[in-house]
Amino acid sequence: MKTHYYTATSLDGYLADQDQSLDWLFQFGEIEGVQDNYRQFIDQVGAVAMGSTTYEWLLEHETLLEDPEKWPYDIPAWIFSTRDLPVVDGADIRFVQGDVAPVHAEMVDAVDGENIWLVGGGDLVGQFHDHGLLDEIILSVAPVTLGSGAPLLPRRITSPSLKLVDVQKHGDVFVQLTYEIQ
């Protein structure tokens, strides 16, 4: 069982632009190998966790309140938020707040040996790292720079260091880097 941060980033380390848009990422359309890679990854995931900004982005951009069948996960999702947020009908969503350590323990119990995916955002992932609960960072790097926006991981990580364990090229657009937390 591993806890992964699996995400896409710009070359200069942003998840979304200053308007919380991912248009910079979606401009590339379908890239050879990316969907297969995602399916292999998600098949090993037993739960997801995300912050409220990521959840609200999904609600809005996937019109999930109007079309709840579009909810992308058939596994439990823990949403970290201090605000009351709407629930997608039929989705296994658990709203939590506070320290990530006891929530992670609850997630580990629920996944029965499968992996946990920290969907985002960067600050939430940083909290998992701060508690020693992050095992791998898997980044798909897009050939764009944004200059500002939502940072990939707004933390200084120098120790324990990151060990590069895999590199994959997807078309002539993305490179996927997998780092193990040492």
Written overview of the protein:
By secondary structure, the protein is α/β, with parallel strands linked by helices. It has a single domain (3-181), classed as Dihydrofolate Reductase, subunit A, CATH 3.40.430.10. Helices cover 24% and strands 32% of the residues. The chain is built from five helices and ten strands; from the N terminus they run ββααβαββαβαββββ. It has helices at residues 23-26, 34-42, 52-61, 100-111, 122-130; strands at 3-10, 14-16, 45-51, 77-80, 93-96, 115-120, 136-142, 150-151, 162-170, 174-181. The strands form two sheets. It has an eight-stranded mixed β-sheet with strand order 5-4-3-6-1-7-10-9, sandwiched between helices. Strand 9 (162-170) and strand 10 (174-181) form a beta hairpin. The longest helix has 12 residues, at 100-111. It is globular, with a radius of gyration of 16 Å. It starts with a strand and ends with a strand. The mean pLDDT is 94.
Q: Can you tag this structure with a few keywords?
A:
single chain, 182 residues, alpha/beta, Dihydrofolate Reductase, subunit A, eight-stranded mixed sheet, 5 helices, 10 strands, RibDG_C
Poorly predicted ranges: none
Number of helices: 5
> What is the alpha-carbon Rg in Å?
16 Å
Number of strands: 10
Q: Approximately how much helix is present in the residues?
A: 10-25%
> How much of the residues is beta strand, in percent?
25-35%
Secondary structure category: alpha/beta
Kindly report the name of the CATH homologous superfamily: Dihydrofolate Reductase, subunit A
Average pLDDT, all residues: 94
Strand order of the largest sheet: 5-4-3-6-1-7-10-9
Q: What's the order of the H and E elements?
A: EEHHEHEEHEHEEEE
Supply the CATH architecture: 3-Layer(aba) Sandwich
- Give me the CATH fold name: Dihydrofolate Reductase, subunit A
Name the quaternary structure.
Answer: single chain
Biggest sheet descriptor: 8 strands, mixed
Measure the end-to-end span.
16 Å
Overall tally of structural domains:
1
